[in-house]
Amino acid sequence: MNILNDAQVSNLLDYEGTEDALVSAFGDLGRSQAQAMVRSRVDCGPVKLSAMGAIWLRHQIAAVKCYPTIEGRFAFALNLFDLHRNELVAVLPGTEITRFRTAAMARLAARAACQGVPEIACIFGFGTIGRSIGAALDGALPMQELHIVDPAVDAQLLASMQPAFKCRLKIASVDSVERSGLVITATRSKTPVFNGKRLAPGTTVIAMGTSLPNGSELDETTLCRAARVVVEWKPQSISEAGEVVLGLKCGALSPDRLVDLPELLTGRANWRESSSDIVVFKSVGIGLADLAAAWLACARHKAAARRETV
Ligand SMILES: NC(=O)c1ccc[n+]([C@@H]2O[C@H](COP(=O)([O-])OP(=O)(O)OC[C@H]3O[C@@H](n4cnc5c(N)ncnc54)[C@H](O)[C@@H]3O)[C@@H](O)[C@H]2O)c1
């Protein structure tokens, strides 16, 4: 059995390869060749305990990720099983798996939903996840400017990050929404971070923040204006994504505009009908995405070990 640490996982993964693994896994979910286990959560005082998992027949693997959350901080562990032998083959700590699969998911959505390359993208929240999404998009969509809306990011911090980016990073205000072809949210906010009236026709909105059903980074106007609201996987998203739960409840979102990745990746739905559509992607994080990233890390680890022994 392999025990990989986060530094090893970080060296083994890249955003492009992880995105390819996600496309393959969520396509297989649409073809009944993979299955995901909806996240289960329990609360006890200040502690939440969550678990989710998946099976992926293409590679004969399964995984379960579990994690306590205390004061907004997560401690992940992921067990990977080989189904040929039906045994545990790897244990991974999960922080880097989560970071890579989340950024790669945003990359997948941005590349599929954006029309061409947006000159300007803006991102609300440039913390751990926001920065990784910025880095994942920088290589995939050669936008000229990435506008950062985050009270915790100042000019000095931004200057220290700029050398790692091809696009120009700029500190911005919520006004950037009006000029951005791609708007991303990656905050811990449970209330809307911009007014949907400000979105230009054709904008892609990618909401990566909270997975709690009573929180939403997007407002009702954004949901009303969206021609499509794309989620990773309906069985989990309709109970976890506040944008979906609250949107359906208040009528800002209708079920006919809600589609998921398995439908899109098997050609049963499309990302947009017209260039003026506003398309929203809402992510909550699915066990199958963890499994896809863990599979890639372990496959690359195994290949590297084989190379070393010859
Ligand atoms: N979709 C997924 O699969 C997935 C995976 C992991 C984490 N997440 C979620 O992503 C979110 C961000 O996680 P993180 O680890 O990067 O958090 P973080 O605390 O590292 O970063 C959050 C950043 O958002 C900024 N911020 C807060 N409110 C803001 C607002 N209203 N406008 C602009 N910026 C604001 C903060 O200053 C901070 O820099 C969390 O809600 C987390 O649960 C989602």
What does this structure look like?
The chain contains ten helices and 15 strands. Strand 3 and strand 4 (61-70) form a beta hairpin. Helix 3 (95-113) crosses helix 10 (287-309). Strands 10-9-8-11-12-15-13-14 form an eight-stranded parallel beta sheet. Strands 1, 2, 3, 4, 5, 6 and 7 form a seven-stranded mixed beta sheet that branches. It is of the alpha/beta class and 310 residues long. The chain has two domains: 2-98 and 287-309, ornithine cyclodeaminase, domain 1 (2-Layer Sandwich); 115-282, 3-Layer(aba) Sandwich (Rossmann fold), CATH 3.40.50.720. 46% of the residues are buried. Nicotinamide-adenine-dinucleotide (NAD) is lined by residues 98, 102, 124-130, 149-152, 186-189, 193, 208-210, 283-285.
Radius of gyration based on Cα positions:
19 Å
Order of helices and strands: EHHEEEEEEHEHEHEEEHEHHEHEH
Bound molecules: nicotinamide-adenine-dinucleotide
CATH homologous superfamily assignment of the largest domain:
NAD(P)-binding Rossmann-like Domain
CATH architecture of the largest domain: 3-Layer(aba) Sandwich
How many strand elements?
A: 15
Estimate the helix proportion, in percent: 25-40%
Q: Helical region count?
A: 10
Q: Based on CA inertia axes, which overall geometry fits?
A: globular
How would a crystallographer describe the biggest sheet? 8 strands, parallel
Number of domains: 2
- In the CATH hierarchy, the third-tier topology of the largest domain is known as Rossmann fold
**Sequence stretches where pLDDT stays below 50 over 5 or more residues:** none
Q: What's the pLDDT, averaged over the residues?
A: 97
Give the DSSP E fraction (strand runs of 2 or more residues): 25-35%
CATH class of the largest domain: Alpha Beta
Strand order of the largest sheet: 10-9-8-11-12-15-13-14
Question: Which structural class do you get from the secondary structure elements?
Answer: alpha/beta
- Compute the separation of the termini in Å: 21 Å
